[in-house]
Amino acid sequence: MKRTIAVMTVMMLVLTFPAIAEESRVTPGVSFYGYVNQDYFNAFDSGIEGAWVEPVYGELITDDPELFFKTDQMSRLDEILDRQVMTAAEAAFRGEGADEPGTPAQRVYDLYDSMRNAEEDRDADDARFMAWADLLTQAADPVEFLDAVKYVYRETGVNVLYTITAAQERETNLPLPKVRMAAPTDGLKVALDPDMSEAYGPVYCAAMSELARCMGLEAAESDIEAAWQLQRTANPARPLVDELEDMRKSRSKDTDDSYTPEDYQADCDRLDALYPDTDPTPPDGLNAVDAQIYSFLVYNGMMDNVALPKAELSADLIGILEDVGFSSDRVIVSPDALSTLTEVTEDNLTALKLNAVMVLSEELSYMPDSLSEPLSRMKRAAACAMWGGDAAPADGTDMSDDAMKSQTLQMLFQDQGLLWAEKYYDDSMTERVAELTERIFDAYIRRIERNDWLTRSEKDVIIRKLNGMVRLIGMPDATNCVFPEIIARADGGSLLVNTAALKRAELQKYLNWVNIPGYDRHSFDVPFSYSAEVLNAATGNAGNNIAYNTIVIPAGFIAGMADPEDDAHLLATIGFVIAHEIGHAFDATGSLHNEVGAFENWWTEASRDTFHEIETRFEVYYHRFPIAEGRYQDFNGNMQENMADFAGMTAILDAVDGDADAQRIILEKSTAMVAAVGSAAVVAENIGEYTDAHAYPPVRMNAIISAMDCFYELYDVGPGDPMYTAPEDRLQLW
Hints:
Layout: H1 8-11, H2 32-42, E1 52-54, E2 59-61, E3 70-72, H3 73-93, H4 104-116, H5 122-137, H6 142-156, E4 162-168, E5 175-181, H7 185-191, H8 194-214, H9 221-234, H10 238-252, H11 261-274, H12 288-299, E6 307-309, H13 315-324, E7 330-332, H14 335-338, H15 349-364, H16 372-387, H17 401-411, H18 413-424, H19 428-450, H20 456-468, E8 470-474, H21 495-515, E9 543-545, E10 550-554, H22 555-561, H23 567-583, H24 605-622, E11 626-628, E12 631-632, H25 639-655, H26 660-673, E13 676-679, H27 680-688, H28 697-705, H29 709-715
Parallel strand pairs: 2-13, 8-10
Antiparallel strand pairs: 1-2, 3-13, 4-5, 6-7, 9-10, 11-12
């Protein structure tokens, strides 16, 4: 959400921190960020001869103006956790603990073992795959084909006819099955651009014809055309938006001069063309800013999730849903998907069989030798279409041992966290952090009750939302996470067998979401925020899922941030981040969701206007603070993080009830936590193209702290100090 405030350019000149010599000591009144972190900055060894760190801002001063150098405390935590994860996993990769079925060590070892012995098991896996494919392709009629689809779905976790996931219904936020036709995404890649479709469509379809022959299918040209058209229409655009965006960013950073600004614009245009043709018209009662938030939700698919009675869908689809175990009597089908859902008939049977085998191969990431030639040519044609020409990168697979270990941990995402936790995590911290979290929630509620501009009904909604926010703290277990049944090679396991086990576990996750009330909001398998990211036990961050009204506080974050000396230290580190994440429930986007996470404008017009006036004050206020001498950040993209920072700091200070020693610890420890060193080049980049949604570190902490009344009492800061803000100008939120 981007807005321009006309008075910013005037306010930017109000506060300028003076440059100081290397040996000088920074005072709290000059820069609290510099005051707290100056010893860290002065001792920082960049390895660059003659370079030193300006302690007011953490800017690396060097004779090389182009030097790009940045490090921060949070990145160091991530690096530590990454090393610890690999250290903890090494024992499992050696087979230690693998003899106990159902443990993280067993799953990690046996998946890794099947991966490194994939070639030895190749013949058996080829036979398995072709047995599934033959069931589909040799079906004599639609009824037999549907029976084969159901069998393969149960065996492999792959539905070759429909893609069935779980999503939140728009009005209630209840998880329901979400359905679209299944077709290989390669087909959509070729069809992205008309020019590319003309160039690579024939290559793709010729390989498709050869694939049919390899499978013993008698496919006429009309069958190939029908299969190709299904791929072009059955895949909605959204699954490829991120892929194309990543491609565009990758090519824009390429040093090759052949990638011109015109090429970049062409990629942008292709990306724009993928956006779904959805009506973004907001409901009545939203102003221009909130309408942008609504449009954001439309783009992310949240507002497309409209459920239909299951009885209105095709008999084929109903049969598959019931066979696999979805108990819901309603199903989410987007309008574009509804137009492509179809009954299986004699006329479309061959085309569906052809697509079924391609979907199975794609979903299981497996190409049997007998089909690899046409499948590879189709994937190559799709990659060239996706990249806009023959410059598509070659499809190379890293088969090194390190790569297989890394892939194993990616596939067993939660198990890597559990292995880490067994070695590095003190589980008693879970209960302690849970108690600390409740203190923060209580502080929020007390502040809301004291608020003088919200109506009583609005306060009640906020308090219900706070009380109803799910707290996922610590580590996943069998009650809140689905673990796959990985099979040892001695018991018949192989890479293909275990890949199918992973897909079945994914299906079970969706079944749990839909069939078990409340499971979705209490599950560690829930996606983080609006992205596809899922947090595991070792993830070095906490998160807020606005759409589920859930905060996730993983064990890795707790262990990395914990300073268990006393509660004040915990509040300053873990508590500040937890309170920040709770604050996201009431930032510009979160504040338009209710206690179950559904989109709802529960505000009165007057209160919402007051909220937007506060947003404007935030933007103006933050522009007072430089990120380096005479340089100021563009805050158009940071509003929500700044508001969450401010709400979080006020909450944890409220939680210590005026204890001056605890207040001092909170201000200093939280400021030390975000210390960062960046070169002049980093600072210059962050003025115009800062990609982090948070404010640049010196601004992030100085702006918050100069608005806290206790700061002036604790550090004797007054008029004339650069950090001083008059009482009437200090930010207020809730």
